[in-house]
Automatic annotation (TrEMBL):
Residues that span the membrane, as ranges: 7-28, 280-300
Limits of the HAMP domain: 301-353
Keywords: Cell membrane, Kinase, Membrane, Phosphoprotein, Transferase, Transmembrane, Transmembrane helix
GO molecular function, one term: protein histidine kinase activity
Keyword Transmembrane helix (UniProt): yes
A Pfam family assignment: His_kinase
Species: Paenibacillus illinoisensis
Protein name as annotated: Sensor histidine kinase
Major localisation: membrane
Enzyme Commission number(s): 2.7.13.3
Keyword Transferase part of the UniProt annotation: yes
Membrane topology: Multi-pass membrane protein
Length: 569
């Protein structure tokens, strides 16, 4: 099928195929590059978040470790000695030493924390919070203590007991250690992490909300809503779109605090150069396509259209239409080619028309010769009919035959004018039918043509050969009564007269052969009458004019004579 296409179509299809291939390869390469970069972004974001989470977990682990080890300090053991009950000064002295050690630890620690020691047996409290009086309340430790860090009043706090098995019954323990640190330590680390351009992490808890740096923005609130909607694992990430910007959000759950460390990265910000490169490539392709369309259009107008016009003209010339002419407005090589083609077509047309006109003149001469001759057989039958009617003393039949015969031969022997009105043709045909009706008593005829058609003209002797064929070949071979109906009608452009007989009829092959002979050159085996009528109508009025044949429902033949209405008004 590709081989049947013209050159221009092949070039266009090859260009489109090449363009599609380039677009496919670039799109695939671009997607792979974006996929690799997105994977690296996700890994880097998770690594940075893990590093940040480890730094916080390290500080919390140090606080937890100190809370567990402080109970083994000798000062704590000495503070709980029973014999100090009667020596309050010594217990206060030991308590001051304990408080000093805790302050030293806070001074050495990265985070300042509040360390509070509860002594259930002594019902005393030692705390590094100098500005708060913390009384010992038995009801406070009547329930089991939480084994993990808890968030209360903008701070995190954690309890441990000595012994550690007393965590479920803290009121029976020797020592309860409470360590708490404020949220601003986490906020400071979040600020420092953002200052170092390592993302914009924050902490999230489904119940307590967000802990963010001091420059928190509306994006965090939107991400918080997304986090609440999703079932979070211990570690993971997802992609979301906020305000038409795509973000990759990664999270890690804190093993000690129970909160989530969350960080997000605007993917488009990082993928911006690749996106700009992709858009530039697509824009270049669009410009290339536009330029290609212009080039193809110019080629189509300058080359393809003239070639198509030349091919169509050659095809029409090969089918016998020698009136074809090619027109080309621009001054190119095709202008010269079209001019030569038009000269060739004009010369061929002139030669063909000269030959055709010569043939028509020869046929007209043959027709005039036929008009000037009297059909001896037809004349002899009419004369014998007159003789027989005279013997039978049938004066009316003799007079009718003589008058119709005289009018008939008067009309067909006139050759001064090639055109006749429909009224004149019908009068001649009526005379002819009257003669045949007198000879063949079983023949009947009917003529029904509108009055407004009678003044229209057509070539002389166009009806008589058709009616003669209907009688000779249709009515006479049958023994039954025969009928001939002549009707006429017209439109704004065409006139049609039909001659329909109820005679013997023709087979489909016979009718097709008769139709084919109408357009063939005249030879000795063909009838001259109908062929001459068809050729004269086609020459005068064009290809649409002429004779056409159809079968009638009664088995006969219906002949239609058609010509243009507006030629001879």
């Amino acid at each position: 099928m590709f081989a049947r296409l013209n050159v221009f179509t092949k070039i266009t299809l090859l260009f489109v195929a090449l363009l599609v291939l380039v677009l496919f390869l670039y799109t695939y390469s671009n997607r792979e590059s974006v996929r690799v970069i997105e994977h690296e972004i996700q890994n880097n974001t998770m690594n940075h978040l893990s590093t940040f989470a480890d730094s916080i977990e390290s500080n919390i682990y140090q606080l937890s470790l100190y809370g567990m080890s402080i109970g083994q300090d000798s000062s704590i053991q000495e503070y709980q000695r029973p014999d100090y009950k009667d020596v309050p000064y010594e217990r206060v002295k030991v308590g001051s030493a304990i408080l000093e050690k805790m302050n030293l630890y806070n001074a050495a620690s990265k985070w300042y924390s509040t360390i509070t020691l509860y002594f259930p047996r002594l019902q005393k409290v030692i705390s590094t919070d100098y500005y708060a009086y913390i009384p010992y309340t038995e009801d406070e430790f009547s329930k089991p203590l939480s084994k993990s860090w808890a968030y209360k009043h903008n701070q995190f706090e954690w309890y441990t007991t000595d012994p550690t098995t007393a965590i479920d019954t803290p009121g029976k323990s020797r020592l309860i250690t409470k360590i708490s640190f404020p949220v601003h330590h986490l906020i400071s680390m979040l600020d420092q992490n953002k200052l170092n351009n390592k993302g914009d992490p924050f902490m999230f808890h489904p119940e307590f909300g967000l802990i963010s740096n001091t420059s928190g923005n509306g994006t965090l609130t939107a991400i918080q809503s997304k986090l609440k909607e999703m079932p979070l694992q211990e570690k993971g990430g997802f992609t979301t779109t906020l305000d038409r910007t795509e973000y990759y959000v990664s999270y890690i759950q804190s093993g000690s605090l129970g909160w989530y460390y969350v960080d997000y990265v605007p993917m488009q910000q990082i993928l911006g150069p690749i996106t700009n490169s992709r858009n530039l490539f697509y824009a270049s392709i669009a410009v290339l396509i536009a330029m290609s369309v212009v080039v193809l259009y110019v080629l189509y107008r300058s080359v393809q259209l003239p070639l198509l016009q030349l091919v169509k003209g050659t095809n029409r010339l090969s089918t016998g239409d020698f009136s074809v002419r090619l027109h080309h407005s621009s001054r190119t090589e095709f202008s010269l080619l079209f001019a030569r083609f038009n000269i060739m077509a004009q010369r061929i047309q002139e030669l063909i028309e000269n030959v055709y006109e010569e043939q028509l003149r020869r046929r007209e001469a043959t027709l005039k010769q036929l008009q000037s001759q009297i059909n001896p057989h037809f004349l002899y039958n009419c004369l014998f009919y007159i003789k027989n009617m005279a013997r039978m003393k049938n004066e009316k039949a003799v007079v009718a035959m003589a008058l119709n015969l005289g009018e008939y031969y008067r009309y067909i022997t006139r050759s001064e004018n090639d055109q006749a009105t429909i009224k004149e043709e019908l009068n001649m045909v009526k005379n002819y039918l009257e003669i045949q009706a007198l000879r063949l008593e079983r023949m009947h005829f009917n003529i029904d043509v509108p009055d407004d058609m009678l003044h229209k003209t057509l070539p002389r002797l166009s009806l008589q050969p058709i009616v003669e064929n209907a009688i000779i070949h249709g009515i006479e071979p049958r023994t039954e009564d025969g009928h001939i109906n002549i009707t006429g009608y017209h439109t704004d452009e065409m006139c049609t007269i039909t001659v329909e007989d109820s005679g013997l009829g023709m087979t489909e092959n016979q009718m097709q052969e008769l139709v084919d002979n109408l357009n063939k050159p005249l030879d000795g085996n063909m009838g001259c009458g109908t062929w001459n009528v068809h050729q004269r109508l086609s020459f005068l009025y064009g290809e649409d004019a002429g004779l056409s044949y159809k079968h009638t429902p009664g088995g006969g033949v219906k002949v239609s004579i058609t010509w243009y209405n507006n030629i001879n008004e």
